[in-house]
Predict the 3D structure of the following.
Amino acid sequence: MKTKVLLGASIIALLVSASCKKSEDAKPNQETTSINPVTGKKKVTLKIVSSDQTNVGATTRIKVSSDAEANKGGAFSYAVTALDGKGVVTIDSTGVLTAVKEGIVVLSVTSAGDDTYESASVSQTITVGPKMANLVNKDIGLSQDEQDDLAVLTQDHKHTIKVEGVEDRKLKFEITSGGAFATVDETSGEITANAAGQATVKITALASATYHESSIEFTFEIVAPAVASSDIQFMNDFVKLGYVLGKTSPYGIHNAPKIDLKSITTPAAKYVVAVYSATEVFFVGNGEAKPSGTAGPMNISEIAGAPKNLPKKGPYTVAVFVAISDKEGDLATELKSKSAIDLAAAATATTGTNYSAVIKFTGTKK
């Protein structure tokens, strides 16, 4: 009889052991929440998964995770407490938080609880930074006049690019192809045409507090000068100019300076003539110098508007500026606005924005 009892106890022990083993194996499928012995409800853990950083003007929907079963645990309610001033943020009943001004707040989220789960709460500190600008898209560009001016540059000349639509952005310039033919200053946009060929410049307006970055590219040609200074000369080789611009001097000598072109195969060159002393400008006018052998050398006195006389003994300088292609009008306007000192500096530079060559002769009135 005793043997039977021991055997029965052993069987019961084995059954209990097996039951416990089965229960342990099932743990991974059980909820991790614990039960409050007083209320009989399950405890819940909440976690705010939204960012703890935002900016003035931004709107954020607060996201909260819960270890309660889906759609259980009760509705969420939201509250904020400012740590350094009121009115930093607002939040509505659906959890949409709007940042009003810079500051720091504490956000509290509470689940109401239900028949199965207890109520629970969680908090998070949120920092509101300055407003992030809503950047505006605005393209930069070149006016038609600027495109025309930049399309063809003459070798050894400089040109500063004029850009439209820049606003408050800084510009950056770079040659993206044809670096052997042209260079550009990265900040000023001044192009130097070094050799005949083709080059492309990239212009970038860097992003600012208001505008997005914008960039364009423009391809241009560099051509050799149509006329070099060695191709023009004064026909008269004399020390004293006499009545420089008069067709005849008081002595009856035809002594007006003449201009001729040599070794030239291009069509007749456009030019602008300037006559000036150290302190005064007496004449600036434009005309057309014809290659020698066609209509002969041209007297300066034949230029429309040229004075017949000079008031003082001098010395005077006669400078001939050969215009670039169709820039004769621009060159005349440019030179007419210059003082005697500026004209002298321009003639010394040999080449300029609107001219490819210059030659000058200085003498005194007879």
